[in-house]
Design brief:
Helix content is 59%, strand content 0%. It has helices at residues 6-13, 21-34, 56-82. The protein is elongated. The two termini are 24 Å apart.
Length: 83
């Protein structure tokens, strides 16, 4: 049996214990069929980049922080996988 990825292991571990590799494969396929990817409509038209007029430095700092959070999350996830 091929080594399960972390996500596959998590999905299978929440289900009944499988007797054979074929059962594990069937369980994985069943879980993946139920997955529905939805596109969330984001509309930022009309939203000012400096959304806090009373404290523009804070607004710009928070905007920067939100961009760094994405890269930091990717870094942490990769570090945890490699650990």
């Amino acid at each position: 049996m091929d080594r399960l990825s972390d996500l596959d292991y998590q999905m299978v571990s929440h289900m009944a214990v499988a007797d054979s590799p074929a059962t594990v494969t069937a369980m994985q396929e069943q879980v993946m069929i139920e997955l529905k990817v939805r596109r969330i409509p984001f509309d930022f038209e009309g939203v000012d980049f400096i959304w806090n007029k009373n404290n523009p430095e804070f607004a710009i700092t928070m905007n920067k922080l939100s961009f760094f959070a994405i890269a930091f999350e990717k870094y942490i996830c990769q570090a945890m996988r490699d650990a």
